[in-house]
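Worked example
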Amino acid sequence: MFNTLKHLVMMVPSTIGLSLLLALFSDKKSRFSRIYETLFCLSMAVSTAVAGKIFQMLFNPSLGIINSVLGLDISWLTDKRYALPALTVILVWTELGFSYIYLTAAIRNLSEDVLESADVEGASRLQKVWRIVLPLISPSLFYLFCTLSVSSMIMVRLVLILTQGGPAGSTETLIYRMYNLAYNNSNYSSAYALGVVVFVMVLGLMVLNFWMEKRSVFYE
């Protein structure tokens, strides 16, 4: 449960924050728009399994480019301190393309009259983003927060592909524990019980999200 919640706390803000920065960066069209917009969306064309294998090579402690560029000597997927953050980095990258497209569409559909009025009043770029853009796209942010939260709670694919819950249980999530109980240990009763626990946790998270919606989401 701790691993699952830790992954949730790392993944959701990182994905939304990075995709929002990229959407704000590409708000205005330029001659290079098609190039960087395609690069930002590239992760949508790669399955989770393929992304996992690509990053497995990048995270390789001796041959991987990440250690080489950063000058580090870290066993990313076999060190219990870094294994879960490494999986989170992979999943943030896989979710980045969709989140970027969604927020880009929301920002480009904002009324130009409102933004021009802010310019006339002398609002800075940061003020426009904080006081105008974010409130107006809050329904889109809320949707992404809900979907990414659920995706984080049921994360299991990369664990199955790369770590099998290791090292020392540091990447064992609730869904992986349920899978392991049912298919590897034939302990179906405990797996069913754990499934109910996951359902209740996801339901509680969604109730909390919709409670926050009434306070922080603004509809036109």
